[in-house]
Structure formats: structure tokens, C-alpha cells
Write a structure and sequence with these properties.
Belongs to the aldo/keto reductase family. By secondary structure, the chain is of the alpha/beta class. It has one domain: NADP-dependent oxidoreductase domain (TIM Barrel). It has eleven helices and twelve strands. Bound molecules: NADP nicotinamide-adenine-dinucleotide phosphate.
Length: 323
């Protein structure tokens, strides 16, 4: 009854997740134990591990997000470039920005100054749903701002403008991919009905859905749909924006002699998600990468998975419920 979930032979580092489907769905009292067999071994997972997307391109599993200044008093102009540079210096090769973050140009400068080859960095940007114009040209705007020839991934940031606009925007992105402006395309904050809409229109499905995802907010129906349809799930707010003072998390951190952030990042990776972490603090930018020399047990993964509060557990905007 087990099924290898990530069985692409090109999936680097022999990173396998075994998933056992439990039917009927576990009741509350048994959830913890049953989920212990939900996700299993990760052998060995490294900072360089990648995953092959439906587009045929590889994405590093761990990414650095640069959404500074949201809900936090940060000077985006001042922190964006040094943080991105520091991230590249310590080895991150996956940067997540967006037009809304107002730092595409600064990230572009950091990439150039880092000395890391363009082809060795996976770069994502996003167009907001209320963008005034076609998504085909939105990609040009991002490329120009960043001083790049192509993006690795371009996302529709949010699903908030209704079916007609969503499909129009999605078709624009598919065209942008077709002509090589971006290698892969995807969406963000899309719920199942938004993804179904693309499927019903007979259009190619996104390679990625980027959603808020951590133990308190696990978006299970969306994750199940994505898993069943070859859509990779990127996890934003993987460390709950630093609000990690849950006894299950802190006691596990103590037991492993680790930061709570390490526990949450391991949970995300071991569940097969692609976490995007943000920090302006050089010590944390480095420390957040030091997660490959320990592993959570299946039971620990289950204990964290049992913290799910659904939508109530969201810490960011999480606009998945719009029609
Ligand atoms: N698509 C979307 O709608 C969407 C929405 C939100 C986020 N995102 C993406 O996901 C990325 C990450 O999400 P996020 O920034 O909201 O949340 P997050 O990464 O869960 O949390 C970032 C916060 O945690 C702090 N932090 C970092 N490392 C820490 C550590 N080891 N211990 C304690 N605190 C630590 C940071 O402060 P310091 O700077 O002081 O370290 C920052 O305040 C964003 O940058 C963005 O790329 C996408």
C-alpha cells in the first residue's frame, strides 16, 4: 500500500519520500500515530538537493525569500541587496522575489555582484493579480528590472481577480514560457478550485503552487490536489515568521540541541515541501542552512503534523478562499 512519491530517477541525491495512504482518514485521536507513517525516509538530503518540475527543469529544494518589510519595520532598500548577497555567499542558489517586494532590481544587482554564475541560480519572480497589463509583458518588466535574460520561474502571485482574469493571466504566462522568457511557470496562493479551473480549461497545469505552509497551517486539500496533479508545493512562512513558541516545537528543538527554525525547516523538507526562508540577519542566513546533519523521526514529523489548525493557523495573508 506504500507508493514511492518522488520517483523520478533524475531526482537528485536519491531523495525519496514514501507515502502510505491511510483510508479512511484518521480520526483525531489516532492522527498522530497514523501520520507517523505518512512520510518517511530522506536519504540523504543536502543543501544542493533539487527536484525536477513538470516543465523538466530542476529547482533547488531550499530557497531564500526576499519579502522584506511586510508586517515588520524593515527598510526594503537597505536590507534587500545585502541579504540576497549574504544568502548567495553562504550557498543558497534559489531566490524568491516578486514585483510586489519592490526589490527586483536590488536582487538583480546582488546576483551580479555575487560572482555566482547566472545558470547556477534559480530565480523566481511574480506578477500581482491586479497587474495592469498582460502577464506576457509583466515578465519583461521583471527581466528588465533584474537585468536578466530569463527567469527560472514566474508565478501569478495571488488568485484574487476572478476566473476570467486568472485564465487570461495564466495563458499569458504560458506564452512567456513558450518563448523562453521563463523556464517554468506557476501560481501562488491558489486553492483547489483555482487549480481545477485551469484544468477544466484544458490548459497546462502550473509546475508550482506557492502557499503558506507550516505545521500550524498545512493546507491539506491543496497539497493533496497538487500531489495528485504533479504540482510541486513551495512552502512560504516555513518558520511561522519566527513565531515558533509552541511546546511541541521548542521541546523538540531542545531534544535535538537545535534552533526551533531547524525543526520546522526539517519538517517542511521531510514532508516533501520546498521551504522559502527569509532573514536579514547574517548569522541566521547561515544557521538556517545548517539542517542537513540531523533528521526528524517519523514520529516527530507526525507530532508536528498534528499541530495543524487549518486556515486558523495562517500567519500571513493566505488569500486562498477568494472565488
Ligand atoms: N507568495 C506569497 O504570497 C508569499 C507570502 C509570504 C511569503 N512569501 C515568500 O516566502 C518567504 C518566507 O516567508 P516569510 O518571510 O513570510 O516568513 P518566514 O521565513 O517564516 O519568517 C521570516 C521571519 O523569521 C525571522 N527568522 C529568520 N530566521 C530565523 C531563525 N533562525 N530564528 C528565529 N527567527 C528567524 C526573520 O527575522 P530576521 O530577518 O530578523 O532573521 C523574519 O522576521 C518570503 O520572503 C517570500 O519569498 C510568499
Amino acid at each position: 500500500m506504500g507508493r514511492r512519491y518522488s520517483d523520478d530517477p533524475t531526482d537528485n541525491d536519491f531523495f525519496y519520500i514514501y507515502r502510505v495512504f491511510v483510508s479512511p482518514r484518521p480520526t483525531v485521536g489516532t492522527e498522530s500515530k497514523l501520520l507517523a507513517i505518512d512520510v518517511m525516509s530522506t536519504i540523504p538530503l543536502t543543501f544542493q538537493s533539487t527536484l525536477r518540475l513538470s516543465s523538466g527543469n530542476d529547482i533547488p529544494r531550499f530557497g531564500f525569500g526576499v519579502a522584506f518589510g511586510f508586517g515588520k519595520d524593515e527598510d526594503v532598500e537597505a536590507v534587500s541587496k545585502p541579504s540576497a548577497l549574504e544568502a548567495l555567499k553562504v550557498g543558497y542558489r534559489h531566490i524568491d522575489t516578486a514585483q510586489k517586494y519592490r526589490n527586483e532590481a536590488l536582487v538583480g544587482e546582488a546576483i551580479k555582484e555575487s560572482g555566482v554564475k547566472r545558470e547556477d541560480i534559480f530565480i523566481t519572480s511574480k506578477v500581482p493579480a491586479d497587474f495592469d497589463g498582460s502577464t506576457f509583458t509583466a515578465v519583461d518588466d521583471s527581466l528588465k528590472a533584474m537585468g536578466l535574460d530569463y527567469l527560472d520561474l514566474y508565478l501569478i502571485h495571488n488568485p484574487t481577480e476572478g476566473t476570467e482574469d486568472r485564465l487570461r493571466m495564466w495563458k499569458g504566462l504560458l506564452e512567456a514560457k513558450q518563448v523562453g522568457k521563463t523556464r517554468s511557470v506557476g501560481v501562488s496562493n491558489y486553492n483547489v478550485h483555482h487549480l481545477e479551473e485551469i484544468k477544466s480549461a484544458g490548459l497546462e497545469l502550473p509546475s508550482i503552487n506557492q502557499i503558506e505552509l507550516h505545521p500550524l497551517c498545512q493546507q491539506r486539500p491543496i497539497v493533496d490536489f497538487c500531489n495528485a496533479n504533479g504540482i510541486v508545493v513551495q512552502a512560504y512562512c516555513p518558520i511561522i515568521q519566527g513565531h515558533m513558541d509552541q511546546p511541541v516545537i521548542t521541546s523538540m528543538a531542545k531534544k535535538h540541541g537545535r534552533d526551533p527554525a531547524h525543526i520546522l525547516l526539517r519538517w517542511s523538507l521531510q514532508r516533501g515541501f520546498l521551504p522559502l526562508i527569509r532573514s536579514t540577519n547574517p548569522a541566521r542566513i547561515l544557521s538556517n542552512t545548517q539542517i542537513y546533519d540531523f533528521e526528524l523521526s517519523g514520529e516527530e514529523v507526525a507530532d508536528l503534523s498534528a499541530l495543524d489548525k487549518g486556515g486558523e493557523g495562517a500567519i500571513a495573508w493566505n488569500p486562498i478562499n477568494v472565488l
